Input
Amino acid sequence: MTAFRISQRGWIVVAALAALVALPGYAPQYLVHVANFILIYTLPVIGLGFLTGFTGRVSLAQGALFGVGAYTTALLTTKLGWAPLATLVPSVLMTVVLAVALGGAAVRLAGLYFVMATIGIQQIVWLVLMNWIELTNGPQGVRSIPAIGLGGYELETPQRFFFLALAAAGISYFLAKRVIGSRLGLYLRALSDDQLAASSVAVEVGRAKVTALALSAAWAGAGGFLYAHYVRYIHPDMFGLEASVLYLVMSMFGGYRSIAGMIVATAILESATEYLRPFGEFRMIAYGMILLLGMMYFPKGILTLVRRRASAPATEKS
Amino acid sequence: MFDQLFIGGLATGCIYAVVGLGFTLVYRTLRMVNFAQGHVFMAGAFLGLVIAERVRLPALPLLLVVGAVAFALGMVLERLVFRRLYHNHEVFIVGSIGLGIVLMNGVRVFFPEPVPFPKVFGSTVVQIGTARFQEAYLWVVVSTLVLVVLLHAMFTYTRTGRALRAVAADAEIAGTVGVNVNRAIAFTFGLSFAVAAIAGVLIGPLYFVSFDMGDMVGLKAFSAAVFGGINSIPGTILGGLVIGVLENFAGGYISSAYKDLVAFVILLVMLIWRPTGLLGRETPVKV
Output
């Protein structure tokens, strides 16, 4: 019985993956375009998951860190002429270094005080991107960022980029799973459950928290790297507080600890900005309402609805 | 130059202080941060604009009317919206940001472009020392002073004020000694909306009003509140004034590009150095 159920679930996963891989084959270009954004955004959202789900800290600076990754690769490729792929490691490193430099001392703050500090970080990074004109072009943004080339094959169209985005999202998903399953993941989970208990069994609380921050920044930086080479024009406003709120909401609607839930929530919210288009100028009002009503009626994530229904029969049996 | 920058900064600082008071009032009572606060400030400015364009009210009644409407709106929104967001601080933050987006884009539908505000506070130029400035600056400073004195008197001498302080100190115990906790919380939101809306009307004549003016002011007022101590009313006022003056000096003497940075650098440094702020007393959870 159990074996049958697992295999049935396995089939659904295989079918869904097959449908996903074949997406550029049958879906209109526009849909592929949206799918690419969803896949890119899963990276910063998974990154937030490290921080929020495993240390109980909520960050509103993920949009800025995503921007640091995007700007690093954009400036290295356009101003210094680096090959796009060569900038992946510098982008990730730059994001991690900056996150630890600005936030390293703040991670020991708990709860609301940490959120306040991340708002400061978010605004500082955004203001520097906006005003350090000699480096970042300021409000002009960075234009004509090259597309990623794989052995002479330029990933210019959404269809071509799709496979890279899918691979990146997949790799970051499995890497995140590995991290969570590792000793470090164990520390982080212990930390989120009970900090005092964790420290009493020799978990180095301070270092584990900074590591969680660094991991979350690394994922954001990698996401920013992909984003810059996909949209190929970046502007500081893409990495403002609104973006940070969006990533936070994606991870909250997903219900923090479940990576799969975050990905579903990311898909729903990212496509929301697309299917709200018919509302025209009322689009942003509708978006604000989604955030507000979502928090009012589903404070623990949308997936709790599904899970509650799914787990109900199981609890009856036991 | 110095006098000019100082007085300009003082006026902006008063606005940060008054808007920041809204953050402080709600935080003291609920340990939550209402990020719709800046947009309430913006909505207050537009409410004042709409009223002033239709009825030729003198300045003081205009401030009172806007304050009263905002107070009622705050009470209603607490009942309908905020009450459902008390689960934890993330839910409250995101919910209130959502509300702010609704407010901002709601106003945007009617006023997509920045509009000039009628000169309700007169346009005489006053000279103090070497500084020359519009009469409206004086209004900002004096109104802030009056508002603070009134708030202080209310919290110290009235029954309602004592009830609010009791709820802020310990809602459960306040409830057992007969304070209507729900009403006190609704009243707190009413007050925080009223002060923000009044600040909006005060700043209106000095600049153009636009739908996105609440974004930056809200976040800076928040920084001011944290800097001075987010659970302390005198702290928030001090924080607002200091940030207003400092950023004006930074803009005047160093570079106007990084003027906006001052508030957030102060926010971050203060949180790391002393999370309770200059005058705050509560021991934060810091492990």
Notes: DSSP finds 15 helices and two strands in chain A. Residues 29-55 of chain A form the longest helix (27 residues).
